[in-house]
Structure formats: C-alpha cells, structure tokens
Amino acid sequence: MRILVTGGAGFIGGHLAESFLADGHEVTVLDNFEPFYAEGIKRHTLSVHREVAEEADAEYRFIEGDVRDVETVQKIVADADVVVHQAAQAGVRESVKNPRKVTDINVDGTVNLLEAAKEANVKRVILASSSSVYGKPHSLPYEEDHPTEPVSPYGVTKLTQEHMARVYTELHGLPTVCLRYFTVYGPRMRPNMAISNFVSRCVNGEQPVIYGDGQQTRDFTYVDDVVDANRTLLESDAVDGEVLNIGSSDNISIQMLAETVRDQLAPGLEIVYESAREADAEHTHASVQKAGELIGYEPSRTIAEGVGEFIEWYQANREWYEPLVRAS
Ligand code: NAD
C-alpha cells in the first residue's frame, strides 16, 4: 500500500511511518519541521525510518514541505492509496498564545489535504483528532456522543477538522475516519510533556514539578496503541465517517503519575507544586467501547508498564534526548 503520513517526522506520525515501513508498505512522509520543539528529535526519527525501510526493503521518501502548500499536497496525495494525517500545531498552551497559526495549520492545512484526497480518489483519510474536542466533562468516561465544548483554540481546530472530514465523506463520498487520541506518550515523545519532564528530573535526582494541585486527571495512552488503531484502519472500512476515542480507558491524577515515575526512579523524592497553567482540561478519561466493538481496539499497557518502558528507552537514549527535554 502507498501511504502518505503528514507530520511523519513528529512523535506519533514518526511511530506510524516506522510501523508501516516495517510492514513493508511504501511510505511518504511530509513534514515542515515546525519549530514547536527541538528539531533534533525529528531528525532522529527520520534516521530510524531510513534504517527500518532498509531492513524491510520498503520504499521510503521524505518530503520537507507544508500541508498548507496546495501544489505540494496535490502532488504527493496523487501518489497515495491512504493518507494518515498527523501534521498539526499541537499543544493547548501554544494555541492560546498563537490562535491564528494553529487555525492556519490545523484547519486550512486539513482542508488542502481533504481537497487533494477527493480529487485523487484516495481509499481513505485517517485523521488525528484529540480528546481536547470534549472540553468540560458532563459525564466521564467520555463517549463519542458526549457534547463537544472545547476550551482552547486547539480543541476548536480539532473539532473543525472532524466536521470537515465528515462533510467530505457525506458530500463527496471520501472515506474518512477521525481518531480522538488521549494524551499519548512513549519513546521520542515531545520533550515538553509531563512524563518526559518527570522522568528527566527524577533520573537526575531532582524533584518533579506539578503545575496546579496535581488532582487533574488524564487518560495516558501508550503510542503503540495509537499505532495499532491506525494499522487496523488501513484495511478496514467499518468506521468510515466515524470518530473513535483512542485512549487507555483508565485515568490517573498527575500526582499519581509523578509518584509512579518517582517510585520507579528515585523513591522518597518530594514532589513540588507550582501554579496551574491556563486552558488545560481538568479531567480526561476515554471510553474505548466503540473502538473495541468496531475495530477490536484494546489498550495494551497499564500506566506503570508504559512508564517503565518509557524510562528504559529514556535511559538508552539519554545522551541525545535529555538535553532536548531540559531545554524545553
Ligand atoms: P508533533 O508535534 O510531534 O507532530 C506533528 C508534526 O507535524 C511535527 O513533526 C511538525 O513538524 C509537523 N507539522 C506541523 N505543522 C506542519 C505543516 N504546516 N506542514 C507539515 N508538517 C507540519 O505532535 P504529535 O504529538 O505527534 O501529534 C500528532 C497528531 O496527533 C497531531 O495532529 C496532534 O494534534 C494529535 N494529538 C496528539 C496528542 C498527543 O498526546 N501527542 C493527543 C491528541 C492528539
């Protein structure tokens, strides 16, 4: 299969491209190295892609380009069977600081891609959405029909993206599916995320810092589970036009997360609290029943297991990854 992964130099897109290559698919990655966080991680990801492609004898090309560039997008979408759209300006706080940029990339970039996919008759577009579309919880865990009242510009762009995808399916018969990811973590994760920060501080014997009282809860999803859901969807038309939650179906407080990291690395270290940051959702928790029923999705790890694997990876890659976390 010829697969285009937008944002494929990034964290999740990088893992997706790696897995598709290992399966022997022909993969094109489009990424513009958006300077949201250290480019070093993305360069590392591309070198992993080249290694995996060589081992699997799979065709791989990287195109440095922007999803907002109509001509580039038309050209590469025309060569794809399936488009897996991960490119976005991620980050809730960044979207509060810079709402025009996040709208530009996440909404206009997505429309470019859908338009090109419609013209090229691609088989399916799989889009990365987010738990941020829900906003304030009326009931937890979130089921897909829970009201959507995003509390950040980022959440609004992801919800708009979902509606655009649905409209392209309804108006033009373009098969699309949107996956609402819940806080994804794992190797090569963005360095400014809570888990990488907690690990980095505890590895160095420094107290982990929590913003707020630590009672915010999150559903943390191991990146391999996100990859599995996308892999299933390459071949399945069971959910065209749908949105699916992709989470761990468990939620823990940030304090418990910090304790889980601390207990594995530096038992006894005290946790420090600083003032809360704006526009962060208070609680997220996914119901994955729909994804289970429709595509057989099942989360594979507990948070303690996932954190343990991430710590192992962190220690093996500490030399190049840690300075990036420290600088974030
Ligand atoms: P990421 O920032 O690591 O990856 C996004 C990639 O897109 C980056 O490599 C960036 O350079 C690229 N990009 C940004 N703007 C672009 C543009 N205009 N043209 C081409 N490439 C561009 O983020 P991630 O964590 O891997 O997230 C991937 C997707 O999943 C995003 O759509 C994000 O909104 C969504 N998501 C992520 C999480 C999470 O916890 N990581 C949760 C929910 C949803």
TrEMBL record:
What InterPro entries does the record tag this protein with? Epimerase_deHydtase (IPR001509), NAD(P)-bd_dom_sf (IPR036291)
Q: Which Pfam families match?
A: Epimerase (PF01370)
NAD-dependent epimerase/dehydratase domain sequence ranges: 3-247
Q: Which domain of life is it from?
A: Archaea
Family annotation (Gene3D superfamilies)? NAD(P)-binding Rossmann-like Domain, UDP-galactose 4-epimerase, domain 1
| Family assignment from sequence similarity | Belongs to the NAD(P)-dependent epimerase/dehydratase family.
Q: What is this protein called?
A: UDP-glucose 4-epimerase
